[in-house]
Design a protein that fits this description.
The structure is a homodimer of 578-residue chains. Chain A is α+β, with helices and mostly antiparallel strands and 578 residues long. The first copy, chain A, has a domain of 283 residues: Butyryl-CoA Dehydrogenase, subunit A, domain 3. Chain A contains 19 helices and eleven strands. In chain A, the strands form three sheets. In chain A, strands 3, 4, 5, 6, 7, 10 and 11 form a seven-stranded mixed sheet that branches. Chain A has a two-stranded antiparallel sheet with strand order 1-2. In chain A, a hairpin with a 5-residue loop joins strand 4 and strand 5. Chains A and B meet through helix 9, helix 10, helix 11, helix 12 and helix 13 of A and helix 9, helix 10, helix 11, helix 12 and helix 13 of B.
Amino acid sequence: MLEYQAPQRDFEFLLFELFEVENHWQDIPAFAEFGDDLAKAVLAEGGRLAAEVMAPVNQSGDEEGCRWEDGAVTTPAGFKSAYQELAQGGWLGLSGNPEFEGQGMPKMLGCLLEEMFWAANTSLYLYGTLSVGTAICIDAHGSAEQRALYLPKLYSGQWSGAMGLTEPHAGTDLGIIRTKAEPVADGGYRITGTKIFITSGEHDLAENIVHLVLAKVPGAPAGSKGISLFIVPKFLPKADGSPGERNTFASGSIEHKMGIRGSATSVMNFDGAVGYLVGEENQGLPGMFTMMNYERLSVGLQGLGAGELAYQQAARYARDRLQGRSPLGPQNPEGLADSLLVHPDVRRMLLTIRTLTEAGRAFAVFVGLQLDRAKYLGDADAQALSELLTPIAKAFLSDRGFECAVLAQQVFGGHGYIREWGVEQIVRDARIAQIYEGTNGVQAQDLIGRKVLRDGGAVLGSLLDKVDVQQVPETFRDDLAAAVQQLRAVTNSVVQRCAEDPALAGSIATDYLDLVGYTLYAWIWARVAGVAPADEFGAGKQTCAAFYFGRILPRTAALTQSINAESAVVMDLPEELF
Amino acid sequence: MLEYQAPQRDFEFLLFELFEVENHWQDIPAFAEFGDDLAKAVLAEGGRLAAEVMAPVNQSGDEEGCRWEDGAVTTPAGFKSAYQELAQGGWLGLSGNPEFEGQGMPKMLGCLLEEMFWAANTSLYLYGTLSVGTAICIDAHGSAEQRALYLPKLYSGQWSGAMGLTEPHAGTDLGIIRTKAEPVADGGYRITGTKIFITSGEHDLAENIVHLVLAKVPGAPAGSKGISLFIVPKFLPKADGSPGERNTFASGSIEHKMGIRGSATSVMNFDGAVGYLVGEENQGLPGMFTMMNYERLSVGLQGLGAGELAYQQAARYARDRLQGRSPLGPQNPEGLADSLLVHPDVRRMLLTIRTLTEAGRAFAVFVGLQLDRAKYLGDADAQALSELLTPIAKAFLSDRGFECAVLAQQVFGGHGYIREWGVEQIVRDARIAQIYEGTNGVQAQDLIGRKVLRDGGAVLGSLLDKVDVQQVPETFRDDLAAAVQQLRAVTNSVVQRCAEDPALAGSIATDYLDLVGYTLYAWIWARVAGVAPADEFGAGKQTCAAFYFGRILPRTAALTQSINAESAVVMDLPEELF
């Protein structure tokens, strides 16, 4: 029952009407031959794959889950052929390096494709996104030989990727990992230790699995400065690049999870496994963060996809379900009752989902644009912006995605709680996006600590400088100006207060991230209303913008007040009284 | 791993220090012999049952779920004996009518016991709470014979109860039900139709199941004025009251649900089943609402229990888990890392759970107090207050309970997402409380429409008149006064605006309910801070009150702004554009 249709019209609106991406593509030599028609065709074909190949095995994959037996993992029925279509269609290498058989397409387009794949089948796409992240990391930090060997196989989906960070005692705090890497005579390393929560660590979708593993070499400095990064393939590549001898590590078990049950999450036991150093010893964490930053945006897109999928289910259900009468009098007098769409509270829920999701999509394209400009033009401002926006994209998009999934479930009433309709699966699947790749609390610390306090709010200020209230419809001008001014004032105050109070940043980080997110969405909605076409689609955008300003933007008032509270209200309770 | 300990200290604080219930008990002749020691003993014994009997089969019950075979339902292992202890201990008849073997204890105490039972094992307690609701309905509306026959058996748990309202096409909108009741020569009725989502409709915990079923007699008026209420027992009682012939209805299947998997939710097919009219024909809906109002408060208590259970898990995990270092410098320098409790953002989550849960508990006792005064003293003001507060209790307590469960899961990081720790089960179990017994959107409509607009806000105003800011510590005085003034102003404005705009009430109902809830919690926290003892426990309360005022009460600023938006922002989008 979980049906998905790609929102192609909105995609095209964002690219060509809101962001006028043609101008950016002309700026970037690598995209010179990239035009509207190609972009539309790529989106349409991606949408077809999502709707017709990936979505049909979404609910069945959840129902069946993965099976583990003697270290081997069987994915749900239909996953293998769907994954092959995803991989063989070149979708994993879409934004990959063309030197190594990637397709070099713009990230701003890739964001939309990722959203679709996440929406259509989160568990299935997870196998893909880990491969893409692995490729990005090897492309950035691997040797020429490593890139030549691994990238084509990862882009094609022939091999897949996984990242081994977490250990039983070490999650967020990677400085305390215990996995060891011992150098051996042949110049390689032997990896020993246990990693947990390894997404796609073991499965049956690809002929080889390339683990990127964090470990410590003998004598490494303590903490995060003593972490090295290794490629640890399930089958050691032979000289011709084909999979050879089985490496000495295996899946010890898979987790039973709340959701993403079609995705196999392994405990991986490394027992003197052969590992190949990536980059230099003790430089592993920056390498892994290349991958993490990609994954963080991608996990935000997971939340976005969940919101869109949830909206589609709830809107369809609300249209079809007849229940009660409109407060304005019967709208379907011949029928037994009116549709749920007559009820203001149902509309409130649907419009909340829709305005958060559509703004989120625009936000994601904006981040994609910065990534493209940073990567292809070496644009330092764009690079700084993408670093500022990454934790927001991860946390805000995934938090709002979960909120949207829960609201969609609520629209269904009791039918939302039973598995048949599938909407409860969206809630369960969306929940993980708030947790993995660094919890959203960690994202919030990253934003306030590394991205705002460190430069006194300069990069954020430069982003807010781009807000031109004269460019937006008059009806939103004052509210937008006030929201931006409020964020500036809060940021200035936070920068000052944090200088004097080391506990403050952490205590307000989550509220501050939300404040930035809702303020940026106001900018987006005002801009959208300004460029919306004079047709039904555009009229819908206008109404949504009014809803956002009237009903969602007020959340910033609460966040601003909450951020004004002293850290003492959070810090004063002695540990023993918790 | 889901361990539960009843918060006995907080219970006693609320009863004896905050609400000084002894005074109320002295007012009420039925409670004349009820004193502190008895109350404490009852709570302690209930707590033991919850912790030692019900909680141990909570996670296993979720894992195993219920099984359906040929119309018979098997509950999870251990449920039967735990249910027997619950029933035989007299806990179901705790506040029941002493004329029929109920124990006649105060509701303000019953609320706390219910919270414990929900917390310890939501699925298991659901079987009990439906029985209690059935008894309340029969006590209020049944004949003398019906009361004498059914009440003792329901109180003792020998028989259990269920309520048959929902049909496949009729959920919130009960006016369109199709189940028929045809009168037969013996003065009884034959019930035919299909009911869905029937909690405890079929199971193996009791020797008989008493269904209260809504149906339409021939020629009944259309809509909700033509609904009658029937007792439809699984086994027809013989003259001596023992279960006799099997009635002609059965469970057609059970639902596969997101949570409360130990609770069997049936499709019930009635095929000319024998039914006994309760009260008069066509007067069924008021009868069912007697039960619903009980169940609504109880479902709020489910949310409260979920919040407490979630807090206990998250606080324990945060204390034990070593990860990262305090922003104030290492607090556990000998250890590998500090505990999670040093992290301000973790504290923020824990304190949010705690302040919402502890205020919710006080709120529940306050509602219980009104119910006691209304029932035993015929206090009309208390009756009006309890009607005002019931939808708030149902929706606000369950919404906050879900919020708390999600926050607790977040404290666990990745460990919160796997089933092993159990915290994800709390999220899944808590979610239903926002949906059943009237979705929280329906509660919000009830509050604003029937409880506030109908009397122009008079009862709410009389409640706010009780707020005496001179009675609370000075530090909270201004903020509390401002919050109360804000709620008064919003209410006045809403009453006026709704008179002119029929769509407004529905469009702002949910935000309005939340505004009332958060404002009342501010009153509670200020009062709590005022009476908190001068010890560690009291110091904790002071800190929590400061947290609530600093970090949670600001939510009212957002709600106030959002309520100010015109209904057009919700209503303008044409149906075809959803």
